[in-house]
Design goal:
275 residues, alpha/beta, five-stranded parallel β-sheet, two-stranded antiparallel sheet, 11 helices, 9 strands, P-loop_NTPase, nucleotide-binding, ATP binding
Length: 275
């Protein structure tokens, strides 16, 4: 079930902590994260680009008061990049921990964003941390690190975008507690865009309506639907005084497509929305 279908009661009380990155929950995802952390369970987040997964992790790490080690995965990321390697320092060879090893030694949350983009040896090194062993073997140093109680492994990926050769194997997925993220319901997304950009909510509503129509084009003319992140960028420029059509072209049309015909179609949708 998508988290966007689990809406929060309108009269639910809310408190604001300025030290915690802003995040508007749309279901029970915060409670689920807290339980996974308390029970020492690894967590997998699935959802489209720009729907709030990374912000959610930042929010929860700050809320729990735990350090956050974030790794943006890419094609060249290896297991050694995560665990560490020997480097030459001051004429001596010294072992330097990678972000995963630091998190295991010190505690905290290690977040691997778009984990399927990394090389295959990365998922192999994660396996001992995602079962009841909760250990990290370091073959190069001969260490076997046991994860402390306040260590948590979180990974994310976009299942709707990945190529078949870059999917997460079932044997790996089944090692995690998993949650599906999606774009928030319109009223919630409007409030998020308004909060992040400073643009009045009534003006953000038109942007959210435009996004809903453009997301219907995913898989046809567009590879990806417009993200909440891009809506915030657009609203931020509008709030700063940039003309709406210029802001929309720079933050919506150009990022979504390089095809001139598709871009013109997008601009027609923008003009129809804003006049």
């Amino acid at each position: 079930m998508s988290l966007s279908t689990l809406t929060k009661p309108a009269d639910a009380p809310s408190t604001v902590d300025a030290s915690v990155p802003y995040y508007q929950s749309v279901g029970n995802e915060c409670e689920m994260f807290e339980q996974a952390f308390a029970q020492r369970l690894p967590l997998l987040l699935k959802g489209p680009t720009g729907c709030g997964k990374t912000r959610f992790i930042s929010h929860m790490a700050a809320k729990l008061g735990k350090p956050l080690h974030t790794v943006s995965c890419h094609d060249d990321l290896t297991a050694a990049d995560l665990t560490g390697r020997y480097l030459l320092k001051g004429g001596e060879t010294q072992w330097v921990d990678g972000p995963l090893t630091r998190a295991v030694r010190e505690g905290g949350i290690c977040y691997l964003d778009e984990v399927v983009e990394a090389r295959k040896d990365v998922t192999v090194v994660l396996h001992p941390l995602t079962d009841d062993r909760r250990v990290l073997p370091l073959e190069r140093t001969g260490e076997l690190l046991e994860a402390p109680d306040d260590f948590m492994l979180v990974v994310s990926y976009n299942p709707g975008y990945q190529h078949i050769l870059k999917s997460l194997k079932p044997s790996t997925r089944q090692r995690f507690v998993a949650m599906s993220f999606d774009f928030p319901p319109p009223a919630v997304e409007r409030d998020i865009v308004a909060k992040e950009s400073g643009l009045p909510a009534e003006r953000c509503a038109a942007l959210v309506n435009l996004a809903a129509s453009l997301r219907g084009m995913k898989g046809q003319d567009l590879e990806e639907g417009i993200s909440t992140r891009l809506l915030i960028y657009c609203a931020t420029l509008i709030q700063a005084g940039m003309p709406i059509l210029d802001a929309a072209r720079a933050t919506i049309v150009e990022p979504l497509s390089d095809d001139a015909d598709v871009q013109e179609g997008l601009m027609e949708a923008v003009r129809a929305t804003f006049g």
